[in-house]
Write a structure and sequence with these properties.
This protein is mainly α and 426 residues long. It is built from 17 helices and 5 strands. It has 2 domains: 192 residues, Preprotein translocase SecY subunit, CATH 1.10.3370.10; 191 residues, SecY subunit domain (Preprotein translocase SecY subunit, Orthogonal Bundle). The chain is globular and about 90 Å long. It starts with a helix and ends in an 8-residue tail after the last helix.
Length: 426
């Protein structure tokens, strides 16, 4: 492992990409500690202790929300916009056509996603400013008049600009870094909270609690890696073809269908979708029925939230798998190249067979994601383990950390193998 890392830094292009990514992560972490003007940061800590959802949102913002920093909104507006755009591609013919146009169509969708992100960031920044202003007035940190119009406008503009900058940093990491910029920024945000979470656990339960926690974490990580690497291999046989004096084909291979083809995307999608309704709470009267329902839905330790989260994870696992894996295209490519699955006729029967296999193996993967995502939170609430509280760490965090780490290793692995080096994964 250490030797492979050393080889990665010996490749000039790969070294440049890694250092570029680290530099942008440094900028991102710096922005998480630059507060917006006009707010008493010390008074916000009392507010966060009384609102578990804020702690969960702060986890994805890497502590920027508790600091009410420039990057307080984090990457969630962009992720929410991406989810909505992907859902719209199924129902809007124009977007569906753009998706089929390849790189040109994808650029158009990406551009509209950016505009939508800025719109969501504007709504969320207004709601967040109103919420914190009301809370600061209630605890006596602000006068009855609250923040002035100019200060509120400056805060809103700063938060929207911070979101735009995060979006740009993520795209730069994807294009010029080591890839998956948005996932890497979320990974960096969660990892930044790890020392604080371990310290809180040690302070509560002592060294024995930390050791026990490390053992539990290792067990969960091993399980996540096992499922992430698990796959069903469908054998494929290619018929021999004679072209001139040469014989092509006649080889055997397989189609690797992963148990969890969607990776950590369903977790991120479900999290951002459940956080989004909390934005509208700031515009509602606390005495209304709608407010009470949304408040219960957005309580991270509540049964309604955990159930909704598990259902959304399962749904998005199937949804995202269907987007990235098209059995019909695979069947057509196999047919064009003279390939077939033994015992299955080419064409539509092959596509149906692949689809059935993919549907069956995705089910345990989806249930595993949902279980790991909510089980540590339930255990943390039952036994009062600070590390597994929503404001610190949870199964969601572990899944994202392990999933993104494996994807990063694959990215670097492919770069090393292209240059005839041995990679990380033996």
């Amino acid at each position: 492992m250490i030797e492979a890392i050393g080889k990665a830094f010996k490749v000039p292009d790969l070294k440049r990409r890694i250092l570029f990514t680290l530099a942008l992560i440094g900028i991102y972490r710096f922005g998480a500690h630059v507060p917006v003007p006009g707010v008493n940061i010390g008074a916000l800590k009392d507010i966060f202790e009384q609102a578990p959802l804020l702690g969960f949102m702060d986890l994805f913002a890497g502590g920027a929300l508790s600091n009410f920093a420039v990057f307080a909104l984090g990457i969630m507006p962009y992720i929410t916009a991406s989810i909505i755009m992907q859902l719209l591609t199924v129902v809007i013919p124009t977007l569906n056509q753009w998706q089929k146009e390849g790189e040109v169509g994808q650029r158009k969708i990406t551009q509209y996603t950016r505009y939508f992100t800025l719109g969501l960031a504007l709504v969320q920044s207004v709601a967040m400013t109103m919420f914190f202003e009301r809370q600061l007035i209630e605890i006596g940190s602000l006068g009855a008049a609250g923040l002035g119009f100019g200060v509120k406008a400056l805060i809103i503009i700063t938060l929207v600009a911070g979101t735009a900058l995060i979006m740009w940093l993520g795209e730069l990491i994807t294009q010029r870094g080591i890839g998956n910029g948005m996932s890497i920024l979320i990974f960096a945000s969660i990892i930044a909270r790890l020392p604080e979470s371990l310290f809180a656990t040690g302070k509560t339960g002592g060294v024995a609690a930390v050791i026990g926690l490390v053992v539990i974490l290792l067990g969960i990580i091993v399980g996540i890696v096992f499922v992430e690497k698990a796959q069903r291999r469908i054998p494929v046989q290619y018929a021999k073809r004679v072209v001139g004096r040469k014989v092509y084909g006649g080889s055997s291979t397989y189609i690797p269908l992963k148990v969890n083809s969607a990776g950590v995307i369903p977790i991120i999608f479900a999290s951002s979708l459940l956080i989004f309704p909390a934005t509208f709470l700031q515009f509602l009267d606390t005495r209304t029925v709608v407010y009470q329902i949304i408040n219960k839905l957005t309580d991270p330790s509540g049964a309604l939230y955990l159930t909704s989260f598990a259902v959304l994870v399962i749904f998005f696992t199937y949804f995202y798998t269907a987007i990235i894996f098209n059995p019909i295209d695979i069947s057509d490519n196999m047919k064009k190249n003279g390939g077939f699955i033994p015992g299955v006729r080419p064409g539509k029967p092959t596509a149906g067979y692949i689809d059935r296999v993919l549907t069956r193996i995705t089910l345990p993967g989806a249930f595993f994601l949902a279980t790991v995502a909510i089980l540590p939170t339930i255990i943390g609430s039952m036994f009062n383990i600070p590390f597994f509280q929503r404001g610190d760490f949870s199964g969601i965090s572990l899944l994202i950390i392990v999933g993104v780490a494996l994807e990063l290793m694959r990215q670097i692995e492919s770069q090393l193998l292209m240059r005839h080096y041995e990679g990380f994964l033996k």
